[in-house]
Write a structure and sequence with these properties.
six-stranded antiparallel beta sheet; 2 domains; three-stranded antiparallel beta sheet; alpha+beta
Length: 366
């Protein structure tokens, strides 16, 4: 989720239960999307080798999703597509790196020992399934601060998963994630959001915010998890101070905000028309525009006027590390069901730190 931004276009009224996972067909759509997302992530994990270009990995992820979707037999009127374009984000960068073909980042290559974050998503009939994973390139085991931040993100995600039960307050999840991260002397990335998802909407009204500043605490309301809801849970943890900073890396991922503003430039109107036609509900990358250069120029005014929301590329301090695990969870009356998830094995990371909080240990034991 764009860091620190309130979900755009939130519905004024709660969607009826009939549109949630109380409907078996809706569950089928979420799980069909999750299957492709998981399979694509496995392909991407295997392709993360030293010397591989970030751009090539992003293109591979998007092509794998598109090819897989083409094989899904659905009625012609049933929508299907990418719910979140592939991003490949190394080391101290926080998220959302998805280079354009003509950019400084197009030549960036993964190096042995890089801690890289992978993220992507699929939608079937408008029901999205997102997934994010972290790994160390070229290594099967890790020590030191890489191990600390991976274990912190993994266990914080596992704690969060177990708390997505009916009646849990969003701020209780926030606090539990904070405690899990602190056990490894790390901190959640300030302002990252886990959001309720519904048909054609990744960023719904309800949200769990990580490491909120006082300003963010005031702007995000207290809410409870309820049965038949679906969430994308994004747990991003840092070895530094957890305060993402702006970078010079070009933002290439956006989503429509729902705001209507008259655009002055023809290039902007053309670009936004393409967005409206091809990406009406879900995030997109400029790399997929019919004309990449004109799309980039058009998005400048679209961003300035607020008709699109940018997924900016932030960074921790130089030399620090960021790890992310993201999953999609269905909230049933009897408890959570994770339908996308990590492939991380905690036994592959050796740390001298561990969780000792009794409440967290009790959660993790379940």
């Amino acid at each position: 989720m764009p860091i620190g931004r309130k979900p755009a276009g939130a519905a004024a009224k709660k969607a009826p239960v009939a549109l949630g996972i109380a409907e078996p067909k809706v569950v089928e759509s979420y799980k069909a999307a999750a299957k492709i997302a998981n399979e694509t992530m496995k392909t991407l994990i295997d392709a993360c080798q030293p010397g591989t270009k970030v751009l090539d990995l992003c293109a591979l992820g998007d092509k794998t999703m598109t090819d897989s979707l083409a094989k899904v037999d659905l009625p012609a009127e049933t929508a299907k597509g990418i719910a979140f374009p592939t991003t490949v984000t190394p080391n101290q960068l926080v998220a959302h790196l998805s280079p354009m073909k003509e950019s400084d980042d197009a030549t960036m290559e993964l190096k042995d020992g890089d801690l890289v974050k992978l993220q992507l998503g699929i939608q079937i009939d408008g029901y999205p399934a997102l997934v994010g994973h972290s790994l160390v390139v070229g290594q099967t085991s890790t020590q030191g601060r890489k191990a600390d931040v991976l274990l912190a993100a993994h266990y914080a995600a596992e704690v969060a998963l177990r708390m997505f039960t009916p009646g849990t307050k969003n701020m209780d999840i926030t606090q539990a994630v904070q405690k899990a991260a602190q056990a490894y002397e790390t901190v959640p990335a300030e302002g990252m959001l886990s959001t309720e998802m519904t048909q054609n909407k990744v960023y719904g009204e309800k949200a769990v915010i990580l490491n909120p500043s006082m300003e963010l605490r005031r702007s995000h309301k207290v809410a409870k998890v309820e049965a038949h809801e679906v969430y994308q849970v994004d747990i991003t943890v840092c070895t530094g101070d957890g305060k993402p900073r702006e970078t010079e890396h070009r933002t290439t991922v956006f989503h429509k905000s729902g705001t209507r503003v008259g655009l002055k430039m023809q290039t902007s109107r053309t670009a936004f028309t393409e967005v409206t036609k091809r990406f009406p509900h879900f995030p997109f990358t400029l790399r997929t525009f019919s004309d990449e250069r004109k799309g980039r120029l058009g998005m400048m005014e679209c961003r300035k006027t607020g008709v699109v929301v940018p997924h900016d590329i932030f960074t921790e301090k130089e030399g620090e590390l960021v790890a992310q695990f993201q999953f999609t969870v269905l909230v049933h009356p009897e408890g959570p069901e994770k339908i996308t998830g990590t492939w991380f094995d905690p036994a592959s990371a050796q740390s001298d730190k561990k969780i000792e909080d009794e409440e967290l240990l009790k959660l993790l034991a379940n």
